[in-house]
Amino acid sequence: MSDAQTAGASLLAVSDLRTWFHTDQGVARAVDGVSFEVRGRETLGIVGESGCGKTVTSLSVLGLLPQPPAKIQEGSSIRFEGEELVGASTKRMRALRGNEISMIFQEPMSSLNPVYKVGDQIGEALRLHRGMNKRASRAEAVRLLTEVGIPEPDRRVDEYPHQLSGGMRQRVMIAMALSCEPQLLIADEPTTALDVTIQAQILELLASLRDSHGMAVLLITHDLGVVAEVCDRVVVMYAGQVVETGTVHEIFQDPQHPYTRGLLDSLPSVDDPGQRLRSIPGTVPNPIAWPHGCRFKDRCSLAGPGCEKPQDLVELGVDRAARCWRVES
Amino acid sequence: MTQYVLRRLLGAIPLVLGIATIIFFLVNLAPGDPTLLLLSPGVTDEVIQQMRENFGLDQPVHIRYVKWIGAMLTGDFGYSFTHSRPVADVLMDFLPNTLILSASALLVAFLFGIVLGTIQAVRQYSAMDSSLSVVLLFFYSMPSFWLALMLILTMSLYARNVWGLPIYFPASGMMSTDYEFLSAGGKLVDRVKHLVLPTLSLALVLMAGIARYMRGSMLEVVRQDFVRTAHAKGLPERTVVFKHALRNALLPIITLVGLYIPFLFSGTVFIETIFAWPGMGRLIVEAIFQRDYPVVMAGAFFFATMVVVANLVADLLYAVVDPRIRYE
User: pTM here?
Assistant: First the structure.
């Protein structure tokens, strides 16, 4: 077992990541100075509204964004087991993808190729990274399907994606991602497209696989309920920046940033049903022209004179920070 | 699947009979009299009458229709007025030539169309993409008979008379005059050389259309989530493009096989005439001018049947490529 697989050691260190898109309308600074760390065997959640840059962050890690229009700016750093991935060769990135770092996506309906059997699609990474032949990779695909809880794996392995339900397809995606025993699994909104009962099953599966495989999970979601269920630590993103970090307990019990509080307030309360759901007024601003000063101030109920200047991330303790001048360090 | 094929074949029977009926009445109700074209001017009315009786043209049109359909169902397409042979025999002489020409044009058009369209999509907005777009638009806009004339002009006439080059690709016929004296390999080469210009004339227009469809289809497919999944597995670019994207991008192209076959056949009518290619297209054109009704009807019927069959084949190909389509 390598060092990175030991709990606590840094596996993925993202620092000052800035991924900008050069468009006809201007430069969209979708991810604008994001830093966080994923450690061995932990689950880090990245939370935020649509358009906050969380998906772009995850795609940047694997180098899956089309360049151009996307461009990872100078000074950005993504280190995986100490190795710098920004500017790494395509060949090196390909060797990592699906092997050391795997990814599952939001839409299980469209994330599988409709014209190939699921067994073939699962076995593909094994043939590529492990040099298995067709027969061995098929046998391994059957084993993986069993592991992700698909009944009758012998039969399912030869089925096409359209013959499976949404939940089953996401299980196939997970089997595919697990095939080469990655150290890091990036799950981008893995349950958003599924209905609630299936969501819970998939989350449970992810958590149990994380423990049995000893891998770390970077979970991208807009759903705080999902975060509460499976994450150890949380990064809250807003407008291309990290606005708050902390353990799940800290974020839920003692949110510091007004945005995090807003998100928590928007959750339906079990104690007080029948109450009108609250929401944060306004929408995420346009990444081509982020607001000057605090990027959240236009939607913040506490906005005041101190919010006119750009906000720094204020360290509040170990792995605990918030991007608001009002917090006490 | 077998059941589906059988059902489609059975369903095609009334369609083909309907086509035969329309062809029959279009040809037979058109003005003109074949006997007048065949006989010298000034023959007596009795001779004309005798000839009409020989051809069966003295009978009312509905009787002729029933007789023709009845005979056709037994494989008898009648007797050619001008070739003085059974129509089926005449067709058998010309049919293989047209099939060779159409098949090679179809092959060239789809092969190059798919390859060029894919290249364009993979290198979208590159200089390669733009220049191919211009060239393809040119071919797409040009009528095939004009292209044929330009090919003859450049490859034959200018090649020899202006540029002093040998004629690599002959502009007329299916084989050289010394064909009989060539070795087996030489015969094949000679045939292929004769095939080049007519094939290009037919194929370039279709190829340009296919490439444009393919480019669009491919661009749509590479944006799909499963292509991102393939990249996320670490697959090299060419595997992603040629395994994951290409097969999905081909689905809409298959429909074009069925759609383009009629264009191809109507193209052969011009192209065979221009290149003196002894095929069905030229046969029918000549038969129309000579009012050789049985040949015109049989030829048109054959083309129509081929279109019906091509569409059936396209549907079946669809099921082969796309597992979501299983005809039960």
Answer: 0.78
